[in-house]
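Let's practice the habit of predicting before peeking. Look at the sequence and jot down your guess about where helices and strands might fall. Then scroll down.
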Amino acid sequence: MLNDLSLLIGITLMYSAPLIFGALGGVISERAGVINLGIEGMMTIGAFAGAAVGFYSQNPWLGLLAAGAAGGGMALLHAVASVTFHADQTISGIALNLIGPGLALFICRLYFDGATMTQPVAHKLPKILGDNQFNSVTQNINVDVTVPLALVAMLILWFVLYKTKWGLRIWAVGEHPAAADTMGIHVRGTRYICVILSGILAGFGGASMTLAVIPQFTPVAISGQGFIALAAVIFGKWTPHGAYGACLLFGFAQALTVFLGGGKAPVPSEILAMLPYLLTILVLVLFVGRSAAPKADGEPYEKGVR
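Done guessing? Here is the structure:
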């Protein structure tokens, strides 16, 4: 029983980390007033960049950095479209969700002999627990280094948003950009920074999948993780700690899918595979009406127009 519990906890933490990075990206972008529906595409390009660079460099940490850069590059496109040119943020995000997977597959075919998946990464990101450490119970809790990194990222974002002057500026830009502008806050600059940071975090989330959970990029490596992360943002009421808790819940749903799929329950595999997505829909139905997004979320701001 204890071994099964520790195994379930380990799988939950493993699957939560990519979601946490993606959700934190959604939080910081939307707190600044920019809807980022492109988390899925940013995670996908980050997953490919992480696996590809990790394979060729034999260094997973370089892969992680490359993933953040790739996600940030995708986010820059979103910032240019939505902040500078006042494009519809929803359409821009959806476009990135199409561009991200397509671009990843195109580059993958160029560098991996026409294959739609990368070669396995020889050196994955290290684990900080497991592999027969401590005792027979904790050895089943395989904690990748991405798990504490995701926790640290959440704590840093919480501190920035709630305890720093720059965090107050982000709140002001997301709630009342015109008032923030009159106070001398650079609305466009703040939104640019936050959107790019959201892409970097989403890229880290993608790499957490292909450098920790699985050893390579495949077309289905992300497969809806970005949308689940967005649901966590809503469920967590646009707060870092709330999104973190929601991601643990969704990670637990994915862990149950893996755990029960091992023949531990007489449930069809198709039903189990649907569990995380069914939970996502249920959360959105029950909580979206009770969650209040930042007031200026999704509204382009043009200086001089009130």
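How did you do? The domain at 2-288 is CATH 1.10.3470 (ABC transporter involved in vitamin B12 uptake, BtuC).
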